[in-house]
Amino acid sequence: MAVFLAGSFPSRASERPEGRGGDFSFRRYEISVGGGVYPGRAAFGYNTYSGYLFYPVGIGNIYEASRYYEKERTSGSWTAAFTFNFTKVMALGASLSYEGGWSGLYRRSDGTKVTGCADNYISPMLTLRVSWLNRPLVRMYSSVGGGVAVNLTREATLEEGRRLPVESDVTFSFQVTPIGISVGRKLFGFAEAGIGHQYVGGFFGIGYRFN
To answer: Which residue of 19, 61, 64, 206 has the lowest C-beta tally within 10 Å?
Structure first.
């Protein structure tokens, strides 16, 4: 604790220009891009097909449901963000994320695709970030964010040759990041660990700081 507190206050020796191993260099703005290891919407599940997968309890219905299986694909989750640093501790960020998901229902007997669904999630979000370690090259922080997700979805019943029109809905989105770390001065790389609709598990990217 003593070492941590001693490092939290600048000394005369540490007040040197940036680029010579000096103290923390405060910059007002940041832009960044990154991707999640496990996309958040995929983690929580895309649309399922209740008309095929779920039937009233009964031996015949259990057999009918067992005739099908479901597969999902995802584009991954990608986020672009702009952050305004009020101080070296507090910052507010605005981000825009995209995740695409495709799920299909298949017959076990011959692998024929019976029906499918395509989801496209566009998620704007505001994030409050608190930096609790600031060093010349390394910074550590925690953050929490909230926003909405606009989902554009289309379903198709292939057996009947029907393609339903695109539908849209708006749902709540959140992201909690207990720990994140960035390495670099102006140009930096970062890694985060958290849970939410942007990602579950890890998130990695690059960014740039400027005044």
So the answer is: 19
